[in-house]
Amino acid sequence: MDNLSDKISDERYPNHYFEHYIAMFQSEINRDGFKEHANFYIQIEGLDEFSKLIGEIILIDKNNDWGYFADLAKEFDQESMNIRNIKELAETAVEVHRYIIE
Q: From first to last of its 102 residues, what are the pLDDT tens digits of the chain?
């Protein structure tokens, strides 16, 4: 990664939750696959870590850093994860979290 990418990653998202979330992705690239992935993440990491991930997703949205994470997905061999899919992956995680905590 270049210096700007390193700065985005390390300064804005020092815990790398969404980066880890993308790297773990093994499901189908569709809404059902994104829900499956969210539930898998909760089983592996727990609800507390999932809640921290959601906080990071909200910050990513605020900073509009979706392009950075789409590029990062390609580095994790997630070639078909474009910006639209990355946003949908994140939105689905937020929806799953909202459903669980309500």
A: 555 566 666 788 999 999 999 999 999 999 999 999 999 999 999 999 999 999 999 999 999 999 999 999 999 888 889 999 999 999 999 999 999 988
Read off the tokens for 72: 């990062």
The position carrying tokens 């773990």 is: 24
Whole-number Cα distances in Å, 42 to 33, 38, 46, 48: 14, 6, 5, 9
Model pTM score: 0.89
Among positive and negative, which fits the CA dihedral 101, 53, 23, 34?
positive
Using the CB atoms, write b or e for 44-79: b if 16+ within 10 Å: ebeeebbeebbebbeebeeeebbebbbebbeeeebe
Q: Which residues contact 61 (CB under 8 A, 6 or more apart)?
A: 90
Chain-centre distance of CA 67, in angstroms?
12
